[in-house]
Amino acid sequence: MSDPEIEAMAAVSSAFGTLEDDAKGRVLRWAADKYGVSLTSPIGMVGQREQSVVEVDRSDSGDVGESVNSANGVVAYDHFADLYSAAAPTTKQTRVLVAAYWFQRIKGQDTFQAFELNRELKHLGHYVDHIADALSANVNKKPQLILQVRKNGNKGQGRKIYKLSGEGIKVVESMITLSVQR
Fold first, then answer.
1. CATH topology of domain 81-181
2. How far is CA 49 from CA 55, 94, 134, in A?
3. Full-model pTM
4. 164: helix, coil or strand?
5. In this predicted model, what pLDDT tens digit does every residue of 27-83 receive, in sequence order?
């Protein structure tokens, strides 16, 4: 009797045999996005990941627009464009997740609304049609990446208020870490 999981691992191993490391990372990120799986961080980053912070040495990269906040170790981006570029989201759901991270972790807001996220994404040319659907996809994932905390207003005109879950924060920080490692 064959094990489909072992067969899938063998197929991946065979396919990766000819790829360079950066190509492997792109393939893994694509597969994770396609199948709704969050990637875990490399073993050397486990202690940092549990604290939900990203510490990145960018002294040799020449990047501008970001700095490490020594108080909490979170990379502080001066502009949403810098964060978006560092995370390199590929789907509507990950674009929304990165925008949510901008408001909650970088700008320090406790919660956010859909229109705020789409406003920032629109400025970069990445407007998300039906943003409520992208937010719902993140809310419905297991584990949840975004949490709905309340709804203001009546049924027809109410605005939902959201916040990132701890797992959502980890996913974005993993995207940033993977992007830096390329």
1. Arc Repressor Mutant, subunit A (1.10.10)
2. 10, 19, 25
3. 0.60
4. strand
5. 777 777 777 766 654 433 333 333 333 334 444 444 444 444 434 445 668 899 999
Element (H, E) at 94: helix 92-101
The residue ranges of every structural domain in the chain are 1-37, 81-181
* Contacts for 46 with CB less than 8 Å, ≥ 6 apart: none
Give the span between the Cα atoms of 160 and 132, in whole angstroms: 9
Residue 142 and residue 93 in contact, taking contact as beta carbons nearer than 8 Å: no
How many whole angstroms separate alpha carbon 88 and alpha carbon 86? 6
Q: How far are the Cα atoms of 13, 48, 80, 82, 128 from residue 122, in angstroms, in the given order?
A: 39, 32, 11, 15, 8
What's the rounded Cα separation, in Å, for the pair 122 and 177? 25
CA-nearest of 98, 92, 65, 68 to 173 is 98
